[in-house]
Every structure is written in structure tokens, then in C-alpha cells.
Amino acid sequence: MDMLNIALPKGRLGEKVYSMFEKAGFECPSIKENNRKLIFENKELKLRYFWVKPSDVAIYVEHGAADIGVAGKDILLEYEPDVYELLDLKIGKCKMAVAGKKDFSYENQKTVKVATKFKNIAKKYYSGIGKDIDIIHLNGSIEIAPILGLSDVIVDIVETGTTLKENNLTVLEDIIPISARFIANKANFKFKGEQIEKIVNSLKEQVEAAND
Ligand code: PRP
């Protein structure tokens, strides 16, 4: 049997994901002992876990460097990687939204300036409602853009809403709910399907139990 390569999103969500995998019988105790190391193996169970930037999980899985992984629906919608999306883990819940100053209005705006990390999601959303936009692509701290007049609105992730509130911004429109998804490489799924199905089935039970 080959090693099963698993890409985990670094951070709090990834730790939650790992504990779900552990519960499914795919444990790798060394992962809890070292917080600088990036790759961990359980040779007996033939598992290899690695921590990657959350937005990179889908890249590892699409290219087959990871057989499976967990990625946010935001990333899957934005980059449309060619992977199987096998399960909604219903954790890491947040939403994609349009936000801006409280008094913002589309009236008298011919072209709306939209700052975002998610330019494809923004383009699709605005073409769906028939509004012309100019995209300003930023890499983070998007909330600053409308405050400094760099953009009219932003398209971004809202989780608790605290970042918007602390910056005197508000949600103007909801675009889509987001949560963490279990993904698999299409080709590798063919010959590691049995192992992968085993994890998916256990995760499915855990998700059902947690959302009863
Ligand atoms: C995300 C998002 C918002 C914030 C929303 O940023 O871009 O800024 O979280 O969370 P809240 O609604 O709970 O306040 P992230 O922390 O990923 O950093 P970023 O600035 O790099 O986008």
C-alpha cells in the first residue's frame, strides 16, 4: 500500500480537521509534538500529513502532491481546481459578502470599484446582477480600501463581522455561505479510493453527529 498524503490547512481550522481525521482512525501522534515541522508520518498506518497555507491546499491536491486535503469553499469557487469535492465538513463556517460604508449606494455609480482577494467570485456575482465593476486586487486587509477611497466596496469573507464593525463598515449583500470541504485528487482517488472512502465515511458520521 502506498503512503496516503494529506494536506492540512495550517491554523485553528487545520487542528480541528486533524482531530476529525484522528477520530476516523488516521492518527499521527507526532503532529502534536512539534509546531515548526511541516511534514509528519505515521509509517505503520502509511500516512503522511503536511501543513500548508490554507489557500494552497487545493493546489497540492490538484497536482497530486496531496491525495486529499481540506479547503475552504471560497478557494474552490475562486480557483475552480480540478479536484473531487467529497464532503462538506460544516466547520470553518463564514460567508462571502459585499461590504462597504453604511451609506454606500449603487445609485449614480456607473462602474463600481471593488477591492478583493476573490476576483472571480466578485466578477461572477456582479455580472449576475448586471453591474459593471472595476476590480482592485488586494492580498489582505481588504477592509481598508473603502475607508481610504481606494474602492467603493469590498468582496470578502465575513466570519464574526468584527473586522467590519471595528472599521465602521457593514455587510451590504450576502453572496454565498462558505465552509470547509474535503477534497481529493481525481487520479489518485482511483487507486487509493478504499482508504479515502474510509476517511470520508467516518467524517460523514462525525459531521452528522455534530449537526444533529
Ligand atoms: C479574514 C477576512 C476578514 C476577516 C473576517 O481575514 O478577510 O478580514 O477574516 O473575520 P471577522 O468577520 O471574524 O472579523 P484574514 O484574517 O484571513 O486576513 P487577511 O487580512 O489576510 O484577509
Question: Strands, helices and their partners?
Answer:
Blueprint: E1 4-9, H1 12-23, E2 39-42, E3 47-52, H2 57-63, E4 68-72, H3 73-79, E5 84-88, E6 94-101, E7 111-116, H4 119-128, E8 132-137, H5 144-147, E9 153-158, H6 162-166, E10 169-178, E11 180-184, H7 186-210
Parallel strand pairs: 1-3, 1-4, 7-8, 7-9
Antiparallel strand pairs: 2-3, 4-11, 5-11, 6-9, 6-10
The structure holds 1-O-pyrophosphono-5-O-phosphono-alpha-D-ribofuranose.
1-O-pyrophosphono-5-O-phosphono-alpha-D-ribofuranose binds at residues 140-143, 156-163.
Tags for this entry?
alpha/beta; 33% helix; 11 strands; 212 residues; five-stranded mixed sheet; binds 1-O-pyrophosphono-5-O-phosphono-alpha-D-ribofuranose; six-stranded mixed sheet
- Biggest sheet statistics: 6 strands, mixed
How are strands sequenced across the largest beta sheet? Answer: 2-3-1-4-11-5
On the 0-100 scale, what is the average pLDDT? 96
Each distinct ligand = 1-O-pyrophosphono-5-O-phosphono-alpha-D-ribofuranose
- Strand percentage, roughly? 25-35%
Order of helices and strands: EHEEHEHEEEHEHEHEEH
**Terminus-to-terminus distance:** 36 Å
Question: Helicity range of the residues?
Answer: 25-40%
Structural class of the helix and strand makeup?
alpha/beta
Unreliable residue runs:
none
By DSSP (H or I, 4+ residues per run), the number of helices equals: 7
Dominant shape: elongated
Number of strands: 11
- Cα Rg: 19 Å
